[in-house]
Here is the input.
Amino acid sequence: MKHLRLNYLLVLTTLSLTPEFGHAQDHVFGGWAGWFNNVRFSENWGMNNDIQFRTGKDWNTNSLLLIRPGVNYYVNTRQTASVGYAATLVTSQLPVAGNRLTEHRIWQQYIINGDLLRMPTQHRFRLEQRFLRRPDETVFAQRARYFIRGMIPLSRPLGERFERGAFISLQNELFFNIHNKAALNGRLLDQNRAYASVGFRISSRYDIEAGYMNQFLLRNAMPNAFTHIAQIALYTRL
Here is the structure.
């Protein structure tokens, strides 16, 4: 069983790898805290909401708040379509005194839940229409995202119903600029986020986890950036 679990870890870790673009990189550090909530109202309808707070080493100059509510339509037990709105606000001052960077988004997504090698796996496809407000301009751009997440229960054999106990999660997300690349980094690929965590499922409704994320950002006129992020997250399903 240990060898099987190691193989599963290697499969998802391979999925999380991305090629290194360019030779010059910056390494920065940050911390993220998030609450990911889903509420089901009926057989077909519900809502979701993410609230995240992100910061780097310096809490006074680069902290960010993200709020992302949405409406869910449950196509069946394994597939969910959603639409929603998101807003991000840099909660600390930019170098230009008195200005804060905000972004408003409209987004659409489709989630498919399934199994990979008997491991619970989620695929998420998301489109975003982004309205970026900068100190001297407002920019409109569109982005596509692909997300995959797998969970390995440590207290139950793979394939059995998992309602309580410790787990390991691995995930990866790719971001693609599909419209107005010139206003961003000038490339199709925008960034990659690879993440690994350990967590505990308190019940079928509550998970808590903590882990490490590597965010690889491709830039245009600056060195690419690796952001090393410590993350804690609460997942609720009500």
Q: What stands out?
A: Confidence is low (pLDDT under 50) at residues 9-23, 94-98.
